[in-house]
Description:
The first copy, chain A, is α/β, with parallel strands linked by helices and 189 residues long. Chain A has a single domain (7-184), classed as Flavodoxin domain (Rossmann fold, 3-Layer(aba) Sandwich), CATH 3.40.50.360. The first copy, chain A, is built from six helices and six strands; from the N terminus they run βαβαβαβαββαα. In chain A, strand 3, helix 3 and strand 4 form a beta-alpha-beta unit. Chain A is globular. The interface between A and B is medium-sized, with 32 and 32 residues.
Amino acid sequence: MSTGEPSILAISGSLRPESLNTMLLRALGEFVPSTIRYEVVNDISALPFYDQRLEVDPPSSVLDLRSKVHEAHALILASPEYNYSYSGLLKNALEWLSRPVGSAVLEHKPVALLGAAPGLYGTVRAQAHLRQVLHGTNSVVLRRPEVYVNEASKKFDDTGKLIDPTARSLVEQLIHNLLSHLPENFEAA
Amino acid sequence: MSTGEPSILAISGSLRPESLNTMLLRALGEFVPSTIRYEVVNDISALPFYDQRLEVDPPSSVLDLRSKVHEAHALILASPEYNYSYSGLLKNALEWLSRPVGSAVLEHKPVALLGAAPGLYGTVRAQAHLRQVLHGTNSVVLRRPEVYVNEASKKFDDTGKLIDPTARSLVEQLIHNLLSHLPENFEAA
């Protein structure tokens, strides 16, 4: 299990600097208690494509991300929806984080999902697929609330602050529920 | 639409040289009529991770694969199942092949799915996710037969020939059905 200060790691499944999902993850910082370290990983493209042959001696990019996830008490994942599913970029990272089988950093890890999209559906299909993947990795995925930030370009102000009341309420609940998975002494923080 | 000699392009979602899925795609060659060109792409790791910013001037790896898919009259996709879904590697390629919207090479392209795995389920979950993705890309995905080559390491001989009678029969039917999507003058080939 993770040790050290309580922490949450957020990983974005997009690479664009102006990504709505990365923006959403950054905006979550406002909702995380100051006693809990919160970090957003916004570029997982340094990982190679998953290749079992590299498991013998994984590159440092893989070891670094595995170490970050291992140290974190909980994860938050946000993926853009491409072609009715999650991004290949994010799935590739999950491949690395799900090995080696039996001691993978995703096993038993509390994970919250959310997503943002310009259209009406707010990554609902991508998140449904991700839930199946994270069942495969034996992670502890929050069931509620489901957070689909649709028409997302209207829901932030110029500084990246989340301003939509419904979205704010859902995100607040999500963080609250995720904190309940942190070790007991951190819950009151 | 594609022109030139009738052709089928097969893409593997794995990188390992000894991949069961790549082996399966190679074994399909036996079932494709000799008048039809059949090519297996067994390494799509030269593509960068999908990034919308690169759409202005895509790298040659992207243009090359788009061109191959554009020229092919039909596609066959085989993905390993990682964490109850398709590989991030294959999804990343599909991202590139699904852009630009409106003129993407995957639109209206006939696609057959199949897969092989050492276990009992033969990539059934990965293929279910892929079907949703390929509905997103507006591709023409064969409905039947569904081909899940389970316990696949037992089903090839030392030369890579598919020897399991059930698998051979299904694959034969798959190719037959896929050929019916080729232009009419090629069907009799």
